[in-house]
Write a structure and sequence with these properties.
- The structure is a single chain.
- By secondary structure, the protein is an alpha/beta fold.
- It has 2 domains: 101 residues, Chitobiase, domain 2 (2-Layer Sandwich), CATH 3.30.379; 362 residues, TIM Barrel.
- Helix content is 32%, strand content 19%.
- It has 17 helices and 18 strands.
- An 8-stranded parallel beta barrel has the order 7-8-11-12-13-14-15-18, surrounded by 5 helices. Strands 1-2-6-4-5-3 form a 6-stranded mixed β-sheet.
- The radius of gyration is 24 Å and the shape is globular.
- The structure holds zinc ion (ZN).
């Protein structure tokens, strides 16, 4: 009986043999797998064994001729062992699966998917459907973008206006149109249709959090501030620098970066932020809260007497210092509730605690024209990072297909490009412990339905799942070999009524 030990690099060398594509077609491919010869009935008894020496999410899977063993140190590893077994069973032939031995553990601890429900709202059943798909590919962080300029999606006790005004827009940008500027310039591109109110109750949130937890997925809520907060300011104009700008009490109708932001010089506005974060900390049990921090235009802060007074009193040196001040405030608030703070990387450009985590989209300047540093620079300062460069991880970018029914924000990010994603690119060896992982981002300005969402996510998230779990040697990845497995997974998805774009 031939025992063939296949490490991940060897798997790439064996691409022509296509071991995985022909037999198990696993995504993400395990760190080590050996086919031990023979077959096993696919419904053979599964025995679970505890082995405390295995890493938290790691597992060993042995398929013998009449029984299956899953070894893990705890529930998470056991879960991932079962996920792998389910994929093997999905490829069973005549009710039989190949005998094999797998030793596996993830390279990165943050393997995320972001869903933006501010721009478009999909609802509880859609979110559960997405979580179910994520779990099958071993993603473990659901980054939930719940608030932005165009909509506020959670009902915070004590702030009823957030839902009354923030969860509904009087109209939106027409389907398949681009509008970002606002005012008369884009007036012809609005559809005249009321959108919402759409939001989640506390009961909904708890249901989704529990559904995710059962699949070993932590929900990371994002309350984007002090910019990208226009929907909340429409509800409470008094927390903006110039309340008269919010007189319509309507969230921002077009896309793009808004000038009106939180008045960081107003103590009542800071109390409001604390109130929202306090609620988020109570409802979401995870250890991380995302506070956005991106694209904070300085226009209003420059003109606002309260903001200028704060800058002077606290000796912040200018508007950049004011952002660092509010970041540090939120950081302190969240730390007092036992949470770590994460935000888009520009939010750590100033002087903020090193334990604040950055989420890096790799832009040198963000869309508000603010300077950002390279990820290696943040890591050098001691910040942990989650990598999601827009050119490799933004799933609202085009797929490079000849025919595509979906509408995209622009740029082209084919499957092969996603598969080239290296979260550690440009990070010196001695700083790589700061790279927590990465994620795929579903921004939804141009995504209206669940079916479009899935088409944009898959198959590209197969590639992200494998990069983040297995981290195959970036220099030796074999896209053709991966594609063969991805094609099989696409076939299975479609059979399960999940939308998935063609590979090419
Ligand atoms: Zn102000």
């Amino acid at each position: 009986m031939n025992v063939r030990l296949v490490s991940i690099s060897a798997a790439i060398a064996l691409a022509a043999v296509c071991v995985y594509a022909d037999t198990t077609a696993l995504i993400p491919v395990p760190q080590e797998m050996s086919l031990t010869g023979g077959t096993c009935p696919k419904n053979a008894l599964v025995r679970y064994e505890r082995n405390s020496s295995l890493p938290e999410e790691g597992y060993e899977l042995v398929v013998g001729e009449d029984c299956v063993i899953i070894r893990a140190s705890g529930k998470a590893g056991e879960f991932y062992g079962r996920v792998t077994l389910d994929q093997i069973k999905a490829g069973a032939k005549n009710g039989l699966i190949p005998c094999l031995s797998i030793k596996d553990a993830p390279r990165f601890r943050w393997r995320g998917i972001l869903l933006d429900e501010s721009r478009h709202f999909f609802g509880k059943e859609a979110v559960k459907r997405l979580l179910g798909q994520m779990a099958k590919y071993k993603f473990n962080r659901f980054h939930w973008h719940l608030t932005d300029d165009q909509g506020w999606r959670i009902d915070v006790p004590g702030y009823p206006e957030l839902i009354k005004y923030g969860a509904v827009r009087s109209q939106s940008v027409k389907r398949n149109e681009k509008a970002t500027k606002g005012g008369q310039e884009d007036a012809g591109k609005l559809n005249g249709e009321k959108y919402g109110p759409y939001f989640y109750t506390e009961e909904d949130l708890k249901e989704i959090i529990a559904y995710a937890a059962a699949r070993h997925i932590q929900v990371v809520p994002e309350i984007d501030l002090p910019g990208h907060l226009y929907a909340a300011l429409a509800a409470y104009p008094e927390y903006a620098c110039f309340p008269e700008n919010l007189a319509r009490r309507d969230p921002r109708l077009v896309w793009g970066v808004e000038r009106d932001v939180l008045c960081a010089g107003n103590d009542d506005a800071i109390k409001f932020v604390d109130g929202v974060l306090d609620y988020v900390c109570r409802v979401f049990p995870g250890d991380v809260v995302h506070i956005g921090g991106d694209e904070v235009r300085r226009d209003r802060w420059k003109e606002c007497p309260k903001c200028q007074s704060r800058i002077k009193k606290e000796r912040l040196g200018g508007e950049d210092g004011l952002q660092a001040w509010i970041t540090s405030h939120c950081y302190g608030f969240l730390a007092s509730r036992g949470k770590r703070t994460i935000g888009w990387d520009g939010y750590i450009a100033g002087k903020v605690p090193a334990a604040a985590i950055g989420m890096s989209s790799h832009a040198v300047k963000d869309d508000a024209g603010l300077k950002q540093f390279a990820p290696a620079e943040y890591a050098k300062r001691g910040h942990d990072l989650v990598m999601c460069p827009s050119s490799l991880c933004y799933l609202d970018h085009g797929q490079g297909l000849r025919e595509d029914p979906c509408f995209y924000i622009g740029h082209t990010m084919p499957l092969s490009k996603c598969y080239s994603f290296d979260p550690c690119a440009g990070i010196p060896e001695n700083l790589r412990q700061h790279i927590l992982g990465g994620q795929g981002n579903n921004w939804t300005e141009y995504t209206w339905s669940v079916s479009e969402l899935e088409w944009k996510m898959w198959p590209r998230s197969f590639a992200l799942a494998e990069v983040l779990w297995t981290y195959p040697d970036p220099a030796r990845r074999d896209f053709a070999e991966f594609s063969a497995r991805a094609a099989e997974h696409r076939r299975r998805m479609i059979a399960n009524h999940i939308n998935c774009a063609p590979l090419k």
